[in-house]
């Protein structure tokens, strides 16, 4: 039998909204599916019979069935829509695993139903959000080594992979700020020479799901006729299809009011239960959705710092000798940075903040010393949506990858604690 190191590793990037999975060396994931599990409730609530030995077999087989009767991804969504016995569970909330049972089931189907491979034959690269507690890594290691019996496992930090995604170009720049806007969490993570500057990580409670909720709210308040059980899905589709980032809200409002026919779109859907068609208008939410990152106060009163200001704060709290390099390489990652012109708006707003600071310091010094202008550059690339997965694919296809993994033998000798630390956070734990 040839060893697992001669086969491509499996890369699974579990996100709050979508999970991307595939084999190392590929340019894009084989599957991208919503991170949801539909579990059959009828087995869970089975009455336990009191009679000794009575239908022990029935109970046992019900238990086995309950372990097998579940769906993930789009299948889960359609099952729960058409059938009342299935309940939907989101295993990951705000970037952290919330429900380990569901997560284990999710991985089970990823490996056996989608990737269709034997986990004992492949090394695995899984990803995690930057502020994950070490215990969570231990659980992940335990499930991977005990349940799936994998030969080796590496748990990578998402933003570092997003930077590594730029490896394919001639200049491999491992210093930069990764702005990772996913569905459930937004992190601004400064990385210097491949090491995360842990103390400067900033996290924002506004992410892709909030854009969806905001669009849902705008459409509801305007009285669009969307069936309530479908309204979240409709808002998500509207977000993914029609939203864009505007440079000036007031101008956009005027544009829409001047020629509504040009800007207002129609959404057509079918009611899930009755099959009746319906349609609704999509107006201002096209640009108001993504605006929550730049003017969060329109969405929630709890958090009001715009994303560019958070990025600036993050860089200002990093060591002074890394700051210029960080401003020069702001890398976007995650599906919610895919809005049209998102990077332009971010770069413009960030540059404004930086220029204002340079001017203020010049004024303070009375023009005796001229500060060098700071170069601000927000990097946008076509694979932003899969940047983390692609970075994982690049990393796992290098020869060093296998030596960096935790192996089954190490796990058996030392236990799950080997997964606690991650070398990219040098000295954090």
Outline of this structure?
Helix content is about 40%, strand content about 20%. The chain is built from 17 helices and 19 strands.
Written description of the protein model:
It is a single chain. The mean pLDDT is 88. The chain has 429 residues and is of the alpha+beta class. It folds into three domains: 197 residues, ATPase, nucleotide binding domain (Nucleotidyltransferase, domain 5, 2-Layer Sandwich), CATH 3.30.420.40; 115 residues, 2-Layer Sandwich (Nucleotidyltransferase, domain 5), CATH 3.30.420; 84 residues, ATPase, substrate binding domain, subdomain 4 (Actin, Chain A, domain 4). The strands form five sheets. It has a six-stranded mixed sheet, sandwiched between helices. Strands 11, 12, 13, 14, 17 and 18 form a six-stranded mixed sheet that branches. The chain has a three-stranded antiparallel sheet with strand order 5-4-6, with helices on both faces. Helix 7 crosses helix 8, helix 7 packs antiparallel against helix 11 and helix 12 crosses helix 14. It has 17 helices and 19 strands. The longest helix is centred in the last third of the chain and has 23 residues.
